[in-house]
Amino acid sequence: MKLALNLALFLFIFFSFYEKSFSLSAYKIKEICKKERSKEKCIKNLEDKKYNLKKGNLIEIPVIPYKR
Fold it and tell me: How many domains does the chain have?
């Protein structure tokens, strides 16, 4: 009985934290690129990253330091 309970809990936790990736919507991409100088290039770059993320490929995400 204890083994069955442990197995059920393990499977529940395993499927609860299933690897999910949430990519940006088209609207959000346009909002982000609104401030950029070359909007078309920015949109193309983010759409390529979105496509690669959906395919399961790794993408490089730059870290921008917070400015006060």
Answer: 1
